[in-house]
Amino acid sequence: MQQGTLMRKVKSKSWKKQRYFKLQEDCMTIWYQSKRTGKTESAFSISDVETVREGHQSEVLQTVAEEFPPERCFTIVFYGRRGNLDLVAGSAEEAQCWVQGLRQLIEPRSFPLTFALVSPTWIRDWFQKADKNKDGRMNFKEVQRLLKMMNVDMNEDHALRLFQDADKSESGTLEGEEFVLFYKALTQREEVLSLFKEYSEDGKKLTLLELVDFLREEQLEDEGTEELAMELIDKYEPSETARARHVLSADGFLMYLCSLEGSIFNPQHRALWQDMNQPLCHYFISSSHNTYLIEDQIRGHSSIEGYIRALKRGCRCLEVDCWDGPNGEPMVYHGHTFTSKIPFREVVSTLGKYAFKVRHPSPGAGGRGWSSVGEDTLYWSCWPPAVQDPRGQGPWRCWVAQGASQSPTPQELKHKILLKGKKIGRLEDTLDGPGDEAPDVSDDDNGAEAEEERRRAKVGGTQHGSALQKDKETLAQALSDCVIYCKNVPFRGFQEARSHSRPSEISSLSEAKARKLIRDEGNKFVRHNAWQLTRIYPSGMRTDSSNYSPQEMWNVGCQIVALNFQTAGTEMDLCDGLFSQNGCCGYVLKPPFMRDEETLFNPSDPSSREGPGPITLTIQVISGQQLPKVANSKEGAIIDPLVRVEIYGVPADQAHQETKYIENNGFNPYWDETLQFQIHVPELALIRFVVEDYDKTSRNDFVGQFTLAFANIKPGYRHIHLLSKDGTSIPPSSLFVHIRITE
To answer: What's the predicted TM-score (pTM) here?
Structure first.
């Protein structure tokens, strides 16, 4: 890759500045500086880069498409919510050099095992940072600087002893393998070594039988344990000799504990493991609110990046607010506000590219222009596979005649896009054509819960007189015909819905209306959601794009709980935690007692759940490894970390406990504290592990977190690989815990 390349950084059609971009010698960092001033403007790590897009594949580069050919343009996309970097190279060759080079650097990523053992590049990165005079060696003063950078406040005598032990050449400096020796001594895991020696007779290795004992007694692996032990040795033992003898060294044992198999998250649940042949209403569905916004609700920026980020995150229900634009071209934005606008055709084009990079159908809302995603994808092929095309004759008539007693399944709807919207007439009219009766143009106009829809002036109206005629003129028949399984209907109570609504229909409720129903009619709400879809959306007062807690909505089985994906925080951590399972497909099967239309379950009364009694979750928080510094902290500052465990679920299960804080040690803090929780409805529980920097004078600072559903927990000695506030990984930061679950 070329270094010191002059390229244009583009922010808008009128903002195009020349900058020098350079890949640092560590092959991990890229900085760029102003051509005019020569000052370094910014820098970013290769580990922050998610992907590189070629050509005019961003809104910004599309605005300069006439000025710069696609061969010279590319976009660097970062993890999380950080904005993209749009660049124009001096030539197509230069652009390709950067695109291919960046892709090679980011491609070999995999699940973080133990960076201290498997990533020499990462170790070299620290070396480069600490080697202030860039002579390829580190004296003791530079080592002390390194320890501060790595969040370690180590006794100077102890640090000097480690330094001298590693300095085999006795030159007073560390270089090459000497630095690796120093780093290994620094990262020695005494708590893991102690556990290893408990099961190792000679304290140097685990035989196959000793490893089997550990897996059965501690990790509670009860099926195919010998085969699993062999697989772990073959996969994680670094010594060829040890592998040949079927034994596991201490290094191999640590690598296993830091691997996917040693994670707190059950690796079998990362794949698609649930039944996908249940009716759509039997699943929680990952859903976003005002997907096009990447900032606030009033003046925020609308962008196709909102759709791309949500889809890559596994979101399956997107929102498209479509309004008339110039020359009759529909535009997407937040109506009656000052948010920016994007052409509807760009949204549709984006959905065509990204909708099915994550599995399964995408319920959504939309309008004119959908034909560009493909007629088969959008509409006619959404009918059940055993049913003929509705434009023809045959079994479809029987399905309609039976009242469409069940909605289709995610499996039946794979690679299809469903439109949630208003519809002229009933489902049968799509087949037979409108008759002499007045069409049923339904809407969500039912008091407070329809405030959002009225404000946006979405098409629809009442059932009476001239208003109906106006609605017939407003709502295009072609768009109406595209609405099949997600027809908007007003919510007028559970009894009314049971008597007059159908599984193919859906109601939208504000968070406030939903809370009132949860409080007053919790069991009826659960029963309703066992046969029909319900969408929940944020209050119109959340102009800052804040989020409500999705947990209370999931507790009554609401499927489409729409959140502002652009806003980081506990609410999105819960969303990511729930949907990180099942192949990240965006669908999670509800527990059996929430799929039964006659269920007695009410989240306010855990005893109403059929099944075994409460379980006890015991968590021993043992240690932490290489925790990151707090963003924007002072140079030389070292964190005082504590761990808080939070339980989210039915009201009786809501709880949190925390450890004491460890002073001045973010590198290898050791807590060894036990926290215990009683959980009444584990099927709905989410567990959130949070690391904070303790501050006795102000609010603690966030360091990292990890959230998962209780159903995905693997008991035993496990590592928890922490995520940033944006939900991106921050290797090699982790917690080491011991988990026990008892009834």
So the answer is: 0.82
Q: What's the rounded Cα separation, in Å, for the pair 110 and 112?
A: 6
| Spatial distance between the Cα atoms of 453 and 92, rounded to a whole number of angstroms | 47
263 is a domain residue: no
- Write down the catalytic residue from 289, 360, 528, 719: 289
Q: Which tokens sit at 324?
A: 């008339």
CATH of the domain at 10: 2.30.29.30
Does residue 392 belong to any structural domain of this protein? no
Q: Which of 56, 269, 282, 334 is catalytic?
A: 334
Q: Which two tokens stand for residue 196?
A: 């290893």
Res 108: pLDDT: 53
pLDDT digits (tens, 9 = 90+) for 142-182: 888 777 776 666 667 778 888 898 898 889 988 877 887 88
Same domain? For 618 and 735 the reply is: yes
- Give me the half-sphere count of Cα atoms (radius 13 Å) on the Cβ side of residue 631: 7
> What's the total number of domains in the chain?
5
Domain membership flag for residue 600: no
Task: Identify the domain boundary among 172, 187, 202.
Answer: 187
Cross-strand partners of 741: 617
**pLDDT tens per residue, range 409-425:** 999 888 888 888 888 87
- Write down the number of H helices and E strands in the chain: 24, 28
Give the tokens for residue 296. 């606030």
CATH code of 423's domain: 3.20.20.190
Q: What is the CATH number of the domain that holds 118?
A: 1.10.238.10
| 635 and 734 inside one domain | yes
CA distance 196 to 661: 27
Distances (CA, A) of 471 to 419, 549, 655: 19, 35, 49
* Domain range for 237: 190-258
334 is catalytic: yes
Cβ–Cβ under 8 Å, residues 714 and 586: no
Question: Would you say residue 669 has pLDDT above 50?
Answer: yes
pLDDT digits over 484-520, tens only?
Answer: 888 999 999 999 999 988 898 999 999 999 999 999 9
State whether residue 320 is helix, strand or coil.
coil
- 651 and 672 together in one domain: yes
3-state secondary structure at position 432: helix
Same domain, 100 and 148: no
Q: What is the mean pLDDT of the chain?
A: 83
* Whether residue 93 is found in the same domain as residue 138: no
Same domain, 307 and 247: no
| Residue pair 510/452 in contact by the 8 Å Cβ criterion | yes
DSSP state of 385: T
User: What whole-number distance in Å separates Cα of residue 380 and Cα of residue 373?
Assistant: 13
- Secondary structure (H, E, C), 170-196: CCCCECCHHHHHHHHHHCCCHHHHHHH
Task: Answer yes or no: is 380 within a domain.
Answer: yes
Question: Quick check: 280 pLDDT over 50?
Answer: yes
Q: Give the three-class secondary structure for 690.
A: strand
pLDDT tens per residue, range 44-73: 888 788 899 999 988 899 989 999 999 999
Q: Are residues 370 and 514 in the same domain?
A: yes
Domain's final residue, options 165, 187, 209: 187
pLDDT over threshold 70, residue 364: no
| One domain, residues 414 and 538 | yes
Which of the two residues, 635 and 739, has the higher pLDDT score? 739
Instruction: For the sheet with 331-332, list strands across it.
Output: 322-323, 331-332, 342-343
Which tokens belong to 261? 């198999």
- Give 692's contacts (C-beta < 8 A, 6+ positions apart): 641, 642, 644, 700, 701, 702, 703
Burial of residue 119 (CB within 10 Å: 0-12, 13-18, 19+) is middle
- Whether 289 sits among the annotated catalytic residues: the reply is yes
Of the ranges 169-178, 257-266, 547-556, which one carries the lowest mean pLDDT score?
A: 169-178
